[in-house]
Amino acid sequence: MKNFFIIIITKIITITLKIFGKNAGNLPGNLALKWDKDIFKYFKINGKIIAVTGTNGKTMTNNCIAQIFKDGGKKVISNLQGNNMETGILSTFIKNCTLTGKIKADYIILETDESYVPVVYKKLPLDCLIILNFFRDQLDRNGEMETLILKIQKFLEDYTGNLILNADDPNVSRLSKANPENKNIFFYSIDKCKESADELYEAAEGTYCPFCKTKLQYEYYQYAHIGKFKCPNCDYGEEEIYQLLTEISVDEGKFCIGGEQYKTKYDSLYAFYDLAAATAVAKLCEIPEDSVKNTIKEFALNNGRLEKLLINNCKTVINLAKNPTGFNVSLRMLQKDENKKDLLLVLNDNVADGRDVSWIWDIDFNNLCGVQRIITAGTRTYDMAIRVKTAGYPAEKIIPCTSIKEAVEKLYETENKKYVIANYTAIQNVRKEIKSFAKS
Ligand SMILES: [Zn+2]
Questions:
Q1: Same domain as 313, residue 291
Q2: Are residues 37 and 171 in the same domain?
Q3: 340: confidence class by pLDDT, cuts 50, 70, 90
Q4: How far is the CA of 321 from the centre of ligand 1 (A)?
Q5: Span from the CA of 209 to the centroid of ligand 1 (angstroms)
Q6: Which are the contacts of 172, defined by CB distance < 8 A and separation ≥ 6?
Q7: Domain interval for residue 11
Q8: Ligand 1 centroid – CA 172 distance (Å)
Q9: Domain ends where: 266, 298, 330?
């Protein structure tokens, strides 16, 4: 009876927040969990749960899977807004359940924060887990990356559901061995292409074999430590690939799967990995391929993840980056672009970003040719300004701003192409300022 009232009250809160134009991201779940820590048990779930986790690309992959399944005619419930911790997932359940706690959908697709995978799925029946990658991220919240991987590994030791893994990340593919009894393991990978490099040129984790500590040998790198690797000592890395993207043309947004050509609006290898994961799940759940191809062709997030805008005739690319790898990927896109360009970097240190911003020292700022000016903003605007100056970028071309509005105005003072890179709590503010600047 108590749970019945918890659901009623938190549903009322959800609806009230919605009336006032607010997204009930975490609050209803937070309250429900406070009132009953076993509230998850109240839900009667009728549908398969698919979870997406990993350091980078969760929202993009999750939302792409949700779109593929919807377009494939399935009823889908998902936390599309990216509220991916226990309270956010709970809020999604509260919003979508009946008063007696019934949740009915074909698929419940949940972006899940890495550190919450063991917490949430100890309580819920999980049908499929997708693990994208592991990079250093927000160290002060997650602790060392290795600790995090071991927590997920521990959870996987008795997990027998479907497990979809990035074969090209040695930190991820090692998890296939967590439970030798689990036969439902599927790998995805991307073939060698123009973007692939013979040598590693960014700070990287996981270059040693997790089983025998021998240095891994790479046939090629895609970005950071992602690539085709093998342990010369114990043969770790020779996995059978379930979903392989071939004939990659990143610039044209094209790739093939099993001879069938796919088109996408994205032109970054980084995004192609997310699409590889999403199409792997679709294949496993038997969504018709024609439908998947159509979804991939049209899919774009438009929420600051590789978002392209035309603002007062200036081409603008906005991307979220909350760790060195994400940043380096964005910088690589900019390096490939031969246009004159201005760069806006927005760095916040709110709790959700991680208070420790020392990770900016692991960003590779060495190649900024063609960048005419760098404007910085956010709560740590001066840290970012010092960071780019230390990398050797001329001080007179660095413009630190104390408000995002001011930064956006400065950014559009020239007609150069614009690149905007912002971290977690900064990205939506900067998008809003850019859009209102366009209208003014
Ligand atoms: Zn080995």
A1: no
A2: yes
A3: very high
A4: 32
A5: 5
A6: 54, 131, 132, 133, 134, 165, 166
A7: 2-298
A8: 15
A9: 298
Q: Looking at residue 332, which CATH number applies to its domain?
A: 3.90.190.20
**Do 122 and 93 reside in the same domain of the chain?**
yes
25 and 153: one domain? yes
The verdict on 403 and 269 lying in the same domain is no
Distance 211 CA to ligand 1 centre (A): 5
Q: What is the pLDDT of residues 228-277, one digit of tens each?
A: 999 999 989 989 999 999 999 998 999 999 999 999 999 889 999 999 99
Are 67 and 87 found together in one domain?
A: yes
Gap from CA of 237 to ligand 1 centroid (Å): 9
Tell me the CA–centroid distance for residue 218 and ligand 1, in Å. 13
For residues 289 and 360, membership in a common domain is answered with no
- Ligand 1 centre to CA of 407 (Å) is 49
* d(CA 271, ligand 1 centre) in Å: 29
Contact 63, 274 (CB under 8 A): no
Strand partners, 320: 422
d(CA 207, ligand 1 centre) in Å: 11
Calculate the CA dihedral of residues 48, 49, 54, 57 and round it to 10 degrees: 70
Quote the ligand 1 centre to 177 CA distance (angstroms): 13
3-state secondary structure 313-335: CEEEEEEECCCHHHHHHHHHHHH
Q: List pLDDT tens digits, range 116-136.
A: 999 999 999 999 999 999 987
- Cβ contact 348:311 at 8 Å: no
How far is ligand 1, taken at its centre, from the CA of residue 147, in Å? 20
Q: Measured in angstroms, how far is the CA atom of residue 234 from the centroid of ligand 1? A: 4
Ligand 1 center from residue 208 Cα (angstroms): 8
Query: What is the model's pLDDT at position 229?
Result: 95
User: Which residues in 78-117 are b (16+ Cβ under 10 Å) and which e?
Assistant: bbbbbbbbbbbbbbbbbbbbeeebebebbbbbbbbbbbbb
What's the CA-to-centroid distance between 153 and ligand 1, angstroms? 18
Which residues hold their Cβ within 5 A of ligand 1, which is an ion? 209, 211-212, 214, 231, 233-234, 236
Are 362 and 203 in contact by the 8 Å Cβ rule? The answer is: yes
252 and 318 fall within a common domain: no
pLDDT of 45 reads 95
Domain boundary among 243, 267, 298: 298
Q: Indicate the pTM of the whole model.
A: 0.88
d(CA 263, CA 296): 7
